[in-house]
Design brief:
heterodimer, A: 392 residues, alpha/beta, 7-stranded mixed beta sheet, 12 strands, globular, B: 145 residues, alpha+beta, 5 helices, 38% helix, disordered C terminus
């Protein structure tokens, strides 16, 4: 295998060389603790402040509203649990959707065990949440609405502004898990009425193990990691300075390059979609065609199973992912694919390809040719396909 | 995650295909859980398995265990084929990851289902063979998160 074609950028991205370069001095040169009084520590503090400013600007937020965390999952856990506890006196009802990331869904299940009530809003066949259902779900004791900005599997972008308006009109806090969207589509916390927002560094060519939670000024959110006075006493622990510097550099890079990058990714994405639909029978594009992340392609190919496809693609140097049961570690396929109405047996045959601006159209053609061959080969092996053909 | 043998049987599966007028055929598993295995047997008058074919919808381990199971039963008598247990299939493949053990169970069940079909058609009894379950996952409980 001489060359790898990496098409799993929703799982993680390559750390950009300029990001690594920006981080390097903060390991062995400026290694001071940002809380220390001496000059060496002040260098670290300056770097942390700089990253915070870059992030605040990217969201149309204030620097005092950005809190560094260890990543998207921590941000989601913190936002949900701390907001739930802080507003307990008002009520114990939370609204979310059926297609959230497990960092949100499993935290909701945890809160249910603690006596909170959670309503899980349905989505339509393209994965867009039902705004009428959301409006009806709001009750006097509703304290939090948590709806993801864009879905990690099928790439559907939610009507965030409308959701924010519903939350605002009802005096409910609005959290959005923007891990997949941040750095890929424009986000304005003011215009969209977002109160809490989770993001992660490694989904936008930054390092792993660093992320942030945006907390609107005035929102009561208690400390989640107890200890020192870092992050305005809301998130203790010595700052991950190299990580924060890397995140800042990645955010700067992502927002500067967003228009050209999106255009390139959309071109690659749409090329894959159009060739799959034209050349492979019995397939379906999952997720909304228009309201879709620039880099996301998600298909189901009937009569075959996802993991088999992934191993064969790996054999051809292609990195991809699937929502099949075998890749989730349980017997059930992806909850997202089930929520958009796919039957179990079809949901097992999903393939997600998430491109980056480094990919080329030639690579996309090679990938389509490989997928065609693999789907055909697996169908020849499939008893489901055998039965289907006999009954034609 | 998979042994070399599993990868070999997945990428070059032995005995994939269908059979016209098989002596016995068995289909087990369930599309809901993501794996279905069908095994065809061609058995001669001395109850020896002359040929065996399979078709599988499932993950890499499901394909590899089907392939290995067909290799192991070929040339054996129907009684000997009863010794091709899930453990035997796993051992022949140099092991499977723990989450994939159920695939080898599926292979054993598929052989038993095909043998059962053969026994029913010919009015014979195979020692130790019981009527196959409709769904091999019916006894499994879902993991809780």
């Amino acid at each position: 295998m001489d060359k790898i074609i990496y098409l799993d950028n929703a799982a993680t991205t390559k750390t950009a060389p300029e990001v690594v370069e920006a981080m390097l001095p903060y390991f062995s040169n400026y290694y001071g603790n940002a809380s220390s009084i001496y000059q060496l520590g002040a260098e670290s503090k300056k770097a942390v402040t700089r990253s915070r400013e870059v992030i605040a600007r990217s969201l149309n937020a204030d620097v005092s509203e950005v809190y560094f965390t260890a990543g998207g999952s921590e941000s989601d856990n913190w936002a949900l649990i701390a907001a739930a506890e802080a507003y307990e006196a008002k009520g114990k009802h939370i609204i979310t959707s059926k297609i959230e990331h497990h960092a949100v869904l499993h935290t909701c299940q945890y809160l249910e065990k603690k006596g909170y009530e959670v309503t899980y809003i349905d989505v339509d066949e393209d994965g867009i949440i039902n705004l009428e259902e959301l409006k009806k779900a709001v009750r006097p004791d509703t304290i939090l609405i948590s709806i993801m900005f864009a879905n990690n599997e099928i790439g559907t972008i939610q009507p965030i502004k409308e959701i924010g308006e519903i939350a605002r009109e009802n005096g409910v806090i609005f959290h959005t898990d923007a891990v997949q969207a941040y750095g890929h589509v424009p986000i304005d916390v003011e215009a969209f009425h977002i109160d809490l927002l989770s993001a992660s560094g490694h989904k936008l060519n930054g390092p792993k193990g660093i992320g942030f939670l945006y907390i609107r000024k005035g929102i009561k959110v208690r400390s989640f990691i107890h200890g020192g006075a870092q992050e305005r006493s809301r998130r203790a622990g010595t700052e991950n300075v190299p990580g924060i510097v890397g995140l800042g550099a990645a955010v700067e890079r992502a927002f500067e390059s967003m228009p050209q990058r999106s255009q390139k990714e959309i071109e690659l994405r749409d090329h894959l979609i159009s060739r799959f639909e034209k050349e492979i029978p019995y397939c379906r594009l999952n997720g909304d065609r228009e309201r879709r992340l620039p880099n996301n392609v998600n298909f189901v190919f009937r009569f075959i199973e996802g993991e088999s496809m992934l191993i064969m693609l790996d054999g051809k140097g292609i990195c991809a992912s699937s929502g099949s049961a075998c890749t989730s570690g349980s017997l059930d396929p992806s909850h997202v694919l089930l929520a958009i109405g796919l039957p179990h047996e079809i949901a097992h045959g999903s393939l997600r390809l998430t491109v980056s601006e480094e990919n080329t159209l030639e690579e996309m053609d090679y990938v389509v040719d490989c997928v065609k061959e693999i789907v055909d080969r697996l169908r020849q092996m499939s008893p489901l396909y055998e039965d289907f053909v006999k009954n034609l | 995650m998979y042994s070399e043998k599993v990868m070999d049987h997945f990428t070059n599966p032995r005995n994939v295909g269908e059979m016209e007028n098989p002596s016995g055929v068995g289909t087990v598993g369930n599309a809901k859980c993501g794996d279905i295995m069908r095994i065809y047997l061609d058995i001669d008058e001395n109850h020896i398995i002359r040929d065996c074919k399979f078709k599988t919808f499932g993950c890499g381990a499901a394909v590899a265990t089907s392939s290995m199971a067909t290799e192991l039963v070929k040339g054996k008598t129907v009684e000997e084929a009863m010794n091709v247990t899930n453990k035997a299939v796993m051992e022949a493949l140099d092991g499977l990851p723990p989450v994939k053990v159920h695939c080898s169970l599926l292979a054993e069940e598929a052989i038993h289902a095909a043998l059962w079909d053969y026994a029913q058609k010919n009015g014979i009894e195979i020692k130790g063979l019981k009527e196959p379950k409709k769904d091999i996952h019916e006894d499994e409980e879902e993991e809780e998160y």
